[in-house]
Every structure is written in structure tokens, then in C-alpha cells.
Design brief:
protein-tyrosine-phosphatase; Tyr_phospatase_low_mol_wt; 4-stranded parallel sheet; Rossmann fold; 13% strand; globular; protein tyrosine phosphatase activity; binds 4-nitrophenyl phosphate; alpha/beta; 160 residues
Length: 160
Amino acid sequence: MKKILFVCLGNICRSPLAEGLMTDKIVKSNMEDQFKIDSCGTADYHIGELPDERTCENALKNGLELKQRARQFEPADFNRFDHILVMDNANKMKVIGLASSEEHLHKVQLMRDFETESNLQGSDVPDPYYGGTEGFQNVYNILDRCTDNLLNYHLQAIEN
Ligand code: 4NP
């Protein structure tokens, strides 16, 4: 069982979408028994809330329904999960600041390290919260690509 956690700031825009996309791909691959998927935010602003309605509308336009509630990252997540994918460098620093061992640190990666094109690796999934609606589709496209590559990475690890 691979346990994967997606992390952003508020857990209402980027990471719930990454969770939804990854879960959908796992279900469609009939691999539900091999994965546990969750998401959270480093901040406490939106605990208990549904994803941002612009995120939900954009996801629905692409055929994906999001209904999970926001929660905050906590140090125990380092033990609950094997792979922690953070949406941007600022939040990666926050997560790393809560790590208490080398083993924890090794679990943390940037979501866009799973971009196909090497010039995009290491960059931030842009925060769409204060921008226009086009930002939400841009985030969708980025996360659709990166979750494809992330799933393939884990499927290969399972096969080998
Ligand atoms: P997220 O987006 O980190 O992708 O969920 C944000 C959500 C809320 C806020 C900022 C970013 N906020 O400042 O409340």
C-alpha cells in the first residue's frame, strides 16, 4: 500500500484537486487497494470547508467531482504517509520545517518534480486563489500531467 499526501496552503484549491485527480486515476486503473490518497494545507484558514467553488466548478467542467473537507498538515502525517507532494516551494519549506528526521525529509517532494519537461521541474503550482478563472484551468492542466507521471512512477515501483 502506497500512502500519498498532497499539500498546499489552504487545502481548498490545489491539493484537493491533486487528490481528486489521483484518486480518479487510481479507481480507473482498478488499483484502489494499492493506494491511500489524502490532501491537506499548511495553514488553518479553511479547516472543515469544501474546496473553493471555483475549483469545484472547474473540476466539474472536466468531469471530476470534489467533496473532501479541508484539514491542516500535522507532524503525524510524516508517519502516516510514504510520499508527501507539496504544491510550491514556500509550503515545501513549511513542511520541511516540521520534519524531525532524515526519513521524514526524504518523503517530501515538489509536485512539479513530476513534470515531464525538465525545465518545469522544481517550479510552483501557481496559487489560483486571487486570480481569474483561467488560473483554475491552468492548475488543472498542470496537476493532470503531474498526477499521470506520479501514478506511473508508483505503478512501476509496485511492478518491480
Ligand atoms: P490553496 O489556495 O493553497 O491552493 O488551497 C489558497 C487558498 C486559500 C488562501 C490562499 C491560497 N487564502 O489565503 O485563504
